[in-house]
Amino acid sequence: MKSVKIYLLALTAMAAASCDDFIDVRPTGVVDGELAYSQPDKMVNAAYASLGDCWFEYPFNLWPYGDLASDDCLKGGGGTTDTGYHPMEIWSTLTSTPGELDQLWYRLYCNISRCNRALVALDEYGVEKLGEATAAQRVGEVHFLRGHSYFKLLTMFRQIPWIDEYVFENNLQEQTPNDQFTYEQLWEKVINEFELAYKALPDEPADGAGRANRIAAAAYLAKCYLTIAWGDGYEATDGVAFINEEYMRKVVEYTTVVENSRFGYLEDFGDIFLPEYKNSKESVFAVQTSSYTDDNTRFGRANWSNTLNGCWGMWSCGWDFHKPSQNLVNAFKTRDGLPMFDSYADTDDYPVSGVVTAQKWDPRLFHTVGMPTFPYKYEAAYTMTTDNSRTPNTYGYYTSLKEVPQRSAGETFEGSWQAFAMNDYVFRYTDVMLMRAEALIELGQLGEARTIINDIRQRAANSVDKHIAYAADYCDIATYPQTYFADKETARKCLRWERRLEMAMESSRYFDLRRWGIASTVLNAYFAMEQDSEYNGVRYGQYYKDAHYTAGKNEFYPVPYNQLYYVPGLYVQNKGYN
């Protein structure tokens, strides 16, 4: 049996009469290894708990890497040196040394370690303590949780060591290289994790909304296959020319499972991002949170990944990170209710309350981006002004709305840190349906893809009166006519635009661009445009003059420096990085 010691209270050894004599006292607050492993359900609970063991230096939702690294978002905060995330948004200075990369790698492997320990406990004591059926379900849940962490590691770092329960039991962690398996083989292993979960889990667990379920496993399998269906992750070998139709058919197969489940579109887009709807039918799987009023603790089980992202001056501890870009705001423009694909960025525009112009907007803009002169998260009592930006000359005046509750609901914070009881979506139903539409287009099934996308646009059109009636005169959105889905190229453009608007500021944009093999084209054009952004005469984003994305290198983040040199020679670096 492994020796597991969880120290809850540090004990300091103190010198006695001479330097050679010490008090030999067994530490208190220690869980004996045998006892820990004999409680497999608690070991599984510990694996679940690690889903929310996040912090702004290692946000498990990956917002610095999916949003800041894309054309959707500027870093924000007190300036370019505030946190180590600036290299992620300009790419040209990115190296393996930022501590944030190392923290993320380390913490995700901590999550995997908990999963490995839980599997060992279930193997030895599961049937005895829980019964055969429950033990089998718990094994499936742990494979889901381990696959979740490995999906993030593989998405971020490409070449990663595979540490499973066998490696753990035999203490081989420091002998396991990160090039033991190829990128394709690592994906096979991640897919196997979710296949095991898919076979073992019920559609709807009886003991909690936060538990992994078969439908969520199907969503993850679809996401895995969609990722590798476009190529190997590097731009030269990604994109339309490299599509694997067999994998695209897998995407359709597994999203069919989600489509035929109890999950569905929440009727109003704005409701999706309010805490009172956090486990609605839109939520296929989410990391659960709570406030101190929910669970009667001092600070609650809040979402600490987003602790920097509250609006400056709106919250007592809002640090004004995660700032929507002007390019993203421009993308919400419509003409005759449809996107302005080719001309959206010709001019920088933004709505101003009380000034209705001929330029109309997709309603989702007002649910996604906080803008001066408009109510913050729907509440007129908290209308935003230009004072609600911390460094406007650097990052502009917009703020992110999806990850925050309404201001009237209060806030949870500790000292100078704030956190909100907002669930972190891993999969929401609309995300899964957009993945399905993407695969259908590449398989030539354009009619069904159009139906999915139009259903999503219709939901957006229906999401004005309840929360953003004040913006009704600014909004105009229409469904796509059949002519927009007469060929793959135009249908593909519609899908990609829809995914950007629907999933904006939800940490997926950069990974979408990489999957499609267009990151360098889109990002380098964005850098050239965003450095000239202007709001009401104030220029910002000028630091983008130093930005450049290099295809063949920047597709993946570098293996962190500390990991490379912890055991010298064990790991290899991703190509292009030193």
List the helices and strands and how they pair.
Layout: H1 33-37, H2 40-49, H3 63-68, E1 73-76, H4 86-90, H5 99-130, H6 132-157, H7 165-169, H8 183-200, H9 214-229, H10 245-259, E2 283-287, H11 292-295, E3 321-324, H12 326-331, E4 333-335, E5 338-339, E6 360-361, H13 364-368, E7 369-370, E8 375-376, E9 379-383, H14 392-395, E10 399-400, E11 412-414, E12 417-419, E13 424-428, H15 429-442, H16 446-461, H17 488-502, H18 509-516, H19 519-530, E14 533-535, E15 538-540, H20 561-566
Antiparallel strand pairs: 1-3, 2-13, 4-5, 4-6, 7-10, 8-9, 11-12, 14-15
Helix pairs in contact: 2-5, 2-6, 5-6, 6-8, 8-9, 9-10, 9-15, 10-15, 15-16, 15-17, 16-17
Mean of pLDDT: 93
Distance between the termini: 41 Å
**Helix coverage percent of residues?**
25-40%
pLDDT < 50 runs, ≥5 residues: 1-23
Write down how many β-strands occur, each being a DSSP E stretch of 2 or more residues: 15
Gyration radius, to the nearest Å? 24 Å
- Largest beta-sheet characterization: 3 strands, antiparallel
SS-derived structural category: mainly alpha
- Number of alpha- plus pi-helical segments: 20
Q: What's the overall geometry?
A: globular
Give a description of the structure:
- The protein is mostly helical and 578 residues long.
- The chain has a domain at 1-37.
- Helix content is 39%, strand content 8%.
- The strands form seven sheets. It has a three-stranded antiparallel beta sheet. It has a two-stranded antiparallel sheet with strand order 1-3.
- A hairpin with a 2-residue loop joins β14 (533-535) and β15 (538-540).
- α6 runs antiparallel to α8 (183-200).
- The longest helix has 32 residues, at 99-130.
- The chain is globular.
- It starts with 32 loop residues before the first helix and ends in a 12-residue tail after the last helix.
- Mean pLDDT is 93; it is low at 1-23.
